Design the sequence.
């Protein structure tokens, strides 16, 4: 069998998390609303109405362009794309074709093997969403709540080479969208939707062969599975003497199967022309510079910096930068206790992330603020409490909102660091174990662990371990 290469391009629709829709004052997010209750004459396409552009959508679209290293267009223009479908009552969609908000750009994918793979962006423009139709009781129903919601359509060049790479792209794009705050990117709610173009070619060839388009690959897993499956189908087809035809396929996430929707016969003619009811979107140099300046440090730059600046492992840096709030939390904590970034990282990686999972809160939403976490780490470092108490303190601070020191005081959780009182307790323990003491003195020094265990049991773990050892060594000398 010949060796084949898989060629994938992804088309994504990103719902911007603006307050209102792109051309009217209806709420942009109406996930929970009853059908057709979040609509007005503009977004239902009534005659005689005029669209009014939402400045927030332009700002967020431009910020995304900056994050994708694209050129922000100083003069972008809206066009009408004509087609007929029940979820589009005006008979055209307002979108951008000739002068989109962003030009060029790329996303660098950080692959699990450490390689960086650059995926170029072919198209990035602002547009309005259509409504949706669904089949209910045998009837096709139309819901226009989603009509007019601001979207960025972003299409990659055919730079991806496998279902896995496409899944990485989608997952890292989702992370970026949340990081810069332009979209909730919740795929289950359709905030990030994806179609995939798939073709194959013999390895070494540079030609592009006929591609098929897979619709509705709306989860990371779906993207991986659907593309892998479709590439396999194409390879088997070609190997058995067949020819790939230009189909549109539908992915059914429930059954994990692809089905043919229709064959594609050339490009539809959408009769694009400039939207006469909207002015060009002009962004001055100063505005563009301000948008670029407002871009936060991006996840991968921060990841690299965490490794270099704080000597974290690549894995720890990856986890801590998986969400912007978590990485901000880490830096805030480290700023308060610069000596121990690795210790802070360990506490966050283990106990704090568990606390977040248990409470369903984000790093930002925790009652346990960075200062409280640092206070706990310091209490342990100073020998005031043991690590187990530290772990329980995390939970108690979260539940009560009290400071760690207050809880230690109130529940007397502190270690017994008072040498005199500890010495008295240890003397009592040794007096009760004459055989072990004799054996130890006779040379069985491995009994030290047993003695320490006895002290810990008697003090319920609250004896300072270092001090305990010192006192034991002294008292057990003959
Ligand atoms: Zn409306």
Sequence:
């Amino acid at each position: 069998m010949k060796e084949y290469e898989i060629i994938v391009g992804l088309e994504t629709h990103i719902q911007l998390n603006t307050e209102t829709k792109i051309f009217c004052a209806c709420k942009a997010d109406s996930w929970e609303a009853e059908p057709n209750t979040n609509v007005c004459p503009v977004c239902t396409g009534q005659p005689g109405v005029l669209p009014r552009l939402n400045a927030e959508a332009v700002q967020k679209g431009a910020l995304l362009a900056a994050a994708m290293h694209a050129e922000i267009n100083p003069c972008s223009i809206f066009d009408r794309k004509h087609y007929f479908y029940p979820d589009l009552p005006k008979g055209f969609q307002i979108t951008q074709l000739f002068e989109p908000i962003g030009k060029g750009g790329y996303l660098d994918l950080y692959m699990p093997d450490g390689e960086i793979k650059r995926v170029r962006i072919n198209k990035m423009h602002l547009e309005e969403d259509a409504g949706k139709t669904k089949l209910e009781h045998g009837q096709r129903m139309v819901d226009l709540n989603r009509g007019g919601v601001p979207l960025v359509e972003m299409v990659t060049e055919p730079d991806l080479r496998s279902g896995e790479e496409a899944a990485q792209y989608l997952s890292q794009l989702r992370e970026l969208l949340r990081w810069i705050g332009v979209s909730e990117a919740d795929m289950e709610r359709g905030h990030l939707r994806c179609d995939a173009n798939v073709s194959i070619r013999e390895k070494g060839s540079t030609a592009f062969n006929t591609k098929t388009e897979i619709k509705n690959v709306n989860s990371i897993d779906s993207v991986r599975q659907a593309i892998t499956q479709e590439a396999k189908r194409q390879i088997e087809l070609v190997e058995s003497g067949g020819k790939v035809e230009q189909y549109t396929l539908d992915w059914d996430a429930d059954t994990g199967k692809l089905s043919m929707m229709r064959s594609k016969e050339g490009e539809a003619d959408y009769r694009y022309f400039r939207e006469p009811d909207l002015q060009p979107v002009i962004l001055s140099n100063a505005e563009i510079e301000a948008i670029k300046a407002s871009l936060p440090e991006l996840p991968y730059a921060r990841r690299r910096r965490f490794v270099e600046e704080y000597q974290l492992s690549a894995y720890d840096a990856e986890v801590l930068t998986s969400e912007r709030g978590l990485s901000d939390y880490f830096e805030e904590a480290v700023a308060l206790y610069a000596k121990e970034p690795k210790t802070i990282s360990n506490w966050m990686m283990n106990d704090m992330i568990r606390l977040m999972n248990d409470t369903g809160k984000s790093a930002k939403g925790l009652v346990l603020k960075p200062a409280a976490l640092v206070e706990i780490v310091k209490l342990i470092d100073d020998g005031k409490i043991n690590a187990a108490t530290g772990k329980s303190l995390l939970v108690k601070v979260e539940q009560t909102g009290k400071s760690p020191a207050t809880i230690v005081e109130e529940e007397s959780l502190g270690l017994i660091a008072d040498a005199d009182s500890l010495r008295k307790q240890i003397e009592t323990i040794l007096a009760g174990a004459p055989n072990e003491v004799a054996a130890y003195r006779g040379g069985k020094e491995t009994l030290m662990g047993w003695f320490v265990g006895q002290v810990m049991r008697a003090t319920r773990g609250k004896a300072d371990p270092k001090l305990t050892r010192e006192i034991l060594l002294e008292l057990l000398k003959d």
User: Anything to note?
Assistant: The chain has three domains: 4-290, 297-410, 419-476.
